Each structure stands twice: as structure tokens, then as C-alpha cells.
Amino acid sequence: MSRRAGLAGVTRVVLAPDKFKGSLSAAEVCAALTEGLRVARPDVRTVSLPVADGGEGTVEAALSAGYRRVAVTAEGPTGELVDTAYAERDGTTIVELADACGLRRLPGGRPAPLTASSYGAGQVVAAAVRAGCRRVVLGIGGSASTDGGAGLVEALGAILLPAGPVEQRLRGGRALAALDGVDLSGLEPRLRDTELVVACDVDSPLLGPHGAAAVYGPQKGATPDDVAFLERALARWATVVAVETGTDHRWAPGAGAAGGVGFAALSLLGARLCPGIDLILDLVGIDDALRGADLVVTGEGSLDEQTLRGKAPAGVAARARAAGVPVVAVAGRSLLDPAALTGAGFSTVRTLAELEPDERVSLSQAADLLRRLAPRLIDRSWPDGPACSVAATRPADRTEAGDGR
Question: Residue 384: how many CA atoms within 13 Å on its side-chain side?
Fold first, then answer.
């Protein structure tokens, strides 16, 4: 199909966006685009396939693809109980750390860099395993903690042994500094028969200048002193685990994901780490959806350099390109130049800023703007190359929940 000829022949469109953070879920983006396309072209058939990359929205994407929701009560990052869920189909479970104990669950949005824990994610994994699930996919984007995954394994039955008497059980990165050992004898026995796959999109080690504390700690509210403390605490945790297991994964790629959850999953749970977006796209059946499609529409709130490093739109574009299907992107704004967009596989990009330059208005009226923007995705006046109407005059000011931090 020639872009110069436009998209008049489009009859089947696959909608595979990520969320527009702060305004719309991926499913809501699909709904708005569907409505707008059908008003412009009643003959167009749409297939909605909300996607995610392992962070916020991962369970929702699985539910949209036909998984069933299983409710769970778990601890949030600072210990308060939250209502969360996992998605299940045919023995495979999708667990989303962000929904159990991620940044979005911090009470009042107040960071807790030293005390936030991954315990709640372990509770959800435990619930799935005890319900008979034998393959667990754990999406770890959007974490609030830097606890080396100690909370995760503690919820699964491990016992953390402090160096001296403590008045109360401590969690979070602060507790790691006082550890003397870890007892794995009580680890959930059904884990031995469970395949655990961790979906993440970073390759950071646990320690060092590119590690969990140094890179992601400040994003979770850690001061320079906090970062130095957490680095020492994580090193202590890594040593304790190495003594117990006889292996040392502190420098393994991905060990620093989600504040060290990747480390604990590798070292103590025998997990396999995989790129989040590819894993989720396989689980929701993107390749089947692409067969017979004339066009794919993907996108997220802000297209920027993070998008190109394994985020959902880039993953969708790669799959669409491999299937020979043109792909366009929609976004609140784009901070990528045309060369970068072309290199990532996007035929064109349309932004809400074309219709509404005020970002605050765009966030509050995103659904209406998407409905109005949708006809431009199949307009005959498509330019011969990426159309990015937003002048990138400042860096992105948000961190996506799916970054494996």
C-alpha cells in the first residue's frame, strides 16, 4: 500500500496502544479511537488489543485478551492493605507488581525510599501458586521500593535473619543493612514446580553506578545519602544471599530491575528475565491479531527516548513491521525527531497537541481529543513520512511505570 495513495482501502485496524499515563488506560484509549474511526469510516473494523510492557496496565492488558481476573488482598508498599488482582488463563498467571505495591500505591503519593517493600508482589505470586498456577509472569515495572526483592521472597516463605535482636519486623531497603542471613527452608514448596518469568525492560545490575540505588533510587524519593545507604544495604543483601546459595547474581543484567526484585527472582526463585513488551505481546496474541490487518495504531502519553528503549509502542511497531503491516502512533506529545520515528518503524505520528497545545487541557480531555484525532490516522492526505506536529523544546518530564525500576 502506498502512503501517497492514502489509506482509503483500510478496512481492518488493530488498536494496540499503551496507557496515556495520567489520563487514560490503554483500554480507554482503544475505546476513544474506535469511536472516532467509526464516525469517520463506518466500514472500518477495529480490533482492540490494549498492551503494556510489564508495568502499570499489564493485568488489564491480559484481561482484555481474555484472561480472567482473580482478586487478591495484599500489602501495599508501606504495609497498608490494598485490593489487587492477577490475571489467569490455562494455568498461566500475570502478576503486576505496580498494582500491588508500586508507586501508584504509595499513600498520598509520598515516597518511602528506605521503607517501601516488594512484599505485596510476593503475596500475589503466592496466591497464584497456591491456586494451582504453574507458570507465573511477574511484571515488575513501576516499583516503589529498593529492597533487593527481599520483601518478595519473604512473602513466599523465606525468613530474613537480623544480626541482632529487633523490637519489630522491618521491611524495605533499610532492613537489609542489619541482615545476618536468610533461611530458605520455609520457601513455598510449590515454587519448585512453577515456571517464573520476570518481565522487565532494563538490564541494570544490582549494584554500582548503573544499579538499583544509583539510577532508580532518586526517582523513588531517595536523597544522595539515602542512595549511599541503600547501596551498602543491597551489597549486604547480595552477600547474605551468595553465602546461602553459593551463587552471586549481583552483577547480572536485570538484577537491579524494580529496586532489586530482579536479583531476588534470579538468585532465590530460579526466575528467567525477559523483555517486558515482547513477553506481554506474546501473551495477548499480537501476532494473530496482525494477520489480515491493514493498519496498526499504537501509542502512549509521551513518545520520547524511553519509548525507543523497549517501551510498548516500539515493541508493537517492530511486530507490525515484521508482519508487513503499516503502523502509526498516537500520543499526547512526541519528543522524537522524524529520523528516530522512521527508524523505530512508525509511518506517521499524530499527537493530541495538534488539537490542543495546553498540556493540562490535553490530559483532562484526552478521550475527546483522541476521538477527534482518529480520522487523521486514515486520512488520504497522509504525508510521505512521519508527521510530528510537536516541537520538542524540552525533555520528557515523566517516568513511565513500565521502566523496570
Answer: 3
Supply the mean pLDDT for the chain: 89
DSSP-derived secondary structure letter, 67: P
Nearest to 285 by CA among 128, 23, 92, 98: 92
Complete DSSP assignment for 338-381: HHHHHHHT-SEEEEGGGT---HHHHHHTHHHHHHHHGGGGG-TT
Q: Alpha-carbon distance 192 to 185, whole Å?
A: 13
The continuous run of DSSP H or E covering 319 comes out as helix 312-322
Q: Which of 37-41, 214-218, 259-263, 375-379 has the lowest mean pLDDT?
A: 375-379
Average pLDDT over residues 73-102: 97
Give me the percent of the chain exceeding a pLDDT of 90.
79
- Name the fold adopted by 12-49+289-378: Rossmann fold (3.40.50)
Where exactly does CATH 3.40.50.10350 map onto the chain? 12-49+289-378
Phi, psi dihedral angles at 128 (to 5 degrees):
-65, -45
CATH of region 58-277? 3.90.1510.10
For CATH 3.90.1510.10, list the domain ranges present in the chain. 58-277
The answer to whether the beta carbons of residues 237 and 150 sit under 8 Å apart is yes
One-letter amino acid at 363 equals L
Torsion of CA 229, 230, 235, 236, to 10 degrees: 70
**Distance between CA 297 and CA 12 in Å, rounded?**
11
| DSSP character string of 172-231 | SHHHHTTEEEEE-TTS-GGGGG-EEEEEE-----SSSTTSIIIIITGGGT--HHHHHHHH
Beta strands in 60-207 (DSSP E): 68-75, 81-89, 92-96, 135-139, 159-162, 179-183, 195-200
